[in-house]
Every structure is written in C-alpha cells, then in structure tokens.
Write a structure and sequence with these properties.
By secondary structure, the protein is of the alpha+beta class. It has two domains: 69 residues, Alpha-Beta Plaits, CATH 3.30.70; 66 residues, 2-Layer Sandwich (Alpha-Beta Plaits), CATH 3.30.70. Helices cover 13% and strands 19% of the residues. The chain is built from four helices and six strands, in the order ααββαβαβββ. A two-stranded antiparallel sheet has the order 1-2. It is elongated, with a radius of gyration of 18 Å. Keywords: 4Fe-4S, Iron, Iron-sulfur, Metal-binding, Repeat. One of its GO terms (molecular function) is 4 iron, 4 sulfur cluster binding.
C-alpha cells in the first residue's frame, strides 16, 4: 500500500495541500473571488506583460516573469466575476534573509527596479547599504522579484482593506 496523506475538509474542498504556499493573485482578485475562476486562461492570454498564469486551476501572478502594470486588460478579458474593480493586490512584498546586501555583498538591484521608489537603502557601518521596503509606497507589482539575483524578495499573502 502507498502512503496516505490526511487532508482537512478545507484542504480537500480547495484542492490545496497543507504546507503549500498560496500563489500570489493579480490585482482585484480576492480570496473569495478567485473561487469563481474556471482556469479558462482568457486573462493569461490577454496580459500584455505575460505575468499571469494558471496555478492550481486558478489565475495567479508569476512575478519572476516581470511586473504587473495594473493595466486592467486581464479584468476586461475575464468572462467570470473574478476581478473586483478598485481592489488592490492581495499580497505584500517581503525582503528575505537571502538578500545579498544582508549577507555582506553590495547590491541595489531591487531599488533600481522598483517603479514606485518603495525600496530605499540605509547605510550601515562596516557593510553595504541595506534595502528597506516602505509598504505604504509598494504597489506589489513584482518589478523587484525577477531582477533580484538572490531570489530574496517574495510576496506574502494578505487581504487588503479594500478587497
């Protein structure tokens, strides 16, 4: 006999296994509205930046592929009620411990890539400048994710107040 995995009712109904990360969602897609996604891929095909994908049968952002420009083409192309007008990103960006600057290597790639100037650098004695992310300025577009040579920037799911 094979090994069995015990799933909760929630895991069974959502199709997610415990311990697996929830993929980041595009702007305007909430935890509730993503359940209306049929995985048809119309939004993926319409995205001019090619940063959308279908993950676990639902629309998701592929941040390593580039940045979301919030153009709304995905929302216009969606035949379901998945996208909510005016809702922001359902994640925030986190600068992780793998950051080169935090490990003694001078790097400002994330700062240079950020179109919102949400990442600044703070000088420190005896080491390279450290990147600092201002969540109030960060749009969650993902422009900093792909260029990061250490892969140290990741989205952390949260539900914005307006979603």
């Amino acid at each position: 006999m094979g090994t069995s995995t015990r799933l909760s009712r929630r895991s069974f109904l959502t199709g997610r296994q415990p311990g697996r990360a929830v993929p980041p969602r595009p702007p305007g897609v909430t935890a509730a509205s993503v359940m209306a996604c049929t995985g048809c891929g119309e939004c993926v095909d319409a995205c001019p930046e090619q940063v959308l994908t279908i993950a676990e049968g639902r629309v998701a952002l592929e941040m390593a592929a580039g940045e979301c420009t919030f153009c709304g083409t995905c929302s216009d192309a969606c035949p379901e009620s998945v996208f909510t007008a005016g809702a922001g990103m359902a994640h925030e960006m986190i600068l992780g411990d793998d950051c080169l600057a935090r490990n003694g290597v001078s790097c400002m790639t994330c700062r240079d890539a950020c179109p919102e100037e949400a990442i600044t650098v703070r000088p420190r004695i005896g080491g390279p400048f450290l990147p600092v992310l201002d969540p109030a300025l960060c749009s969650g577009c993902g422009a900093c994710v792909g260029p990061c040579p250490a892969g140290a920037i990741t989205p952390q799911i949260r539900e914005p107040a307006d979603a």
